[in-house]
Design brief:
This protein is an alpha/beta fold and 285 residues long. Helix 1 packs parallel to helix 9 and helix 4 packs parallel to helix 5. Helix content is 38%, strand content 18%. It is built from 11 helices and 12 strands. The chain has a single domain, classed as Glycoside hydrolase/deacetylase (TIM Barrel, Alpha-Beta Barrel).
Length: 285
Amino acid sequence: MQSKGLAAISVDLEDWYQGLELPLESWGSYEKRIQIGTEVLLEIFDKNSVKATFFALGIVAKEHPKILQKIADAGHEIGSHSLFHKKIYELTPKQFKSEEIESKDLIEQVIGSRIFGFRAPYFSITNQSLWALEVLSELGYEYDSSISPVKTWRYGIKGVSEGIYEIENGMYEFTPSTMSVFGKKLGVGGAYMRLLPLAFTKRALSSGARGLYLHPWELDPHHPRLNISYLPRFTHYVNLKSTKAKLSYLVETFRFLPIKAVIEAERKIKRFKPLTFDDLVQGRL
C-alpha cells in the first residue's frame, strides 16, 4: 500500500437526481436508487478496511435513515451536505442557516451523535457566499470542505491553493485536492476520475494529493439518463462504468482516512496555514 502522506476519502451522499439541478418539486417522480451505489461503496471500503467521510443530505437522512445508520455503524464519519442540495450562493444567510439547522438535526438524530464537518453542494462556498463559514461556525461545525481551488462554471475561488487551513473563526478548511493535467488544474475524484485514465489520479495521490471524493450514483452506472443540458449531462454520466474498478484499485493501493482524522493528525504536527476571510476574497493563498 502506497502513501505519500495522509489522504482523506469522502462521499457526497445523495441520490442520482439530487445533484442534477432539477426542481425540488420533481424529486418525488424519480426512482430512488441511493442504496445501490452505497452498498457497493460500503463493500469496497469494508474489503479494504477503509473508513471514509460521508457528507449526507438532510433529506437523505429523513428518507433513508437505515442507510445512514448502516454507514455510521460501519465506523465511517458522517457530515452534512446541506438539506436539499441547493447552491449556497443562491441562498440568503437566513435561508441557509434555517436549512442547515434542520439538516444537522436530522442527521444527528439518525446516527445518535454530533457531526463536525460540512460540504456545500457543488462546492458552492465561493467569494459570493463566504458568509456561510460564519453560519457554520455558529452551528458548531469544526471544519468545512467546500472551497475548491478549481474554478468552474459552478464553483471555485481563483487563487486558492489546496491544503488544510485554520480559518480566523476557529474552523478548519479542507479543500478538495487538485492535479495538473496538460497545464490545467483539475480536481481529484468525481467526474475527473471517471473522465481521465486511472494513471492521472494515481499520480496525483502518489504526489501527495490530500483527498479523493465521489458519489454513490457513480457506482450505479445503470441509473436513469435524463435529457438535460450538455455540460451537466457530460460530467454526470461520463464513464460511469469505470468507477468501481478505479476506486477498487485506489483503495487497495493507497491509505485513506476520514477527513476529520486527517485534520486531527495534521494538527499534532502543526502544518496548517492561517486563513483570513480577506485572504480568500483577494486570492492570496
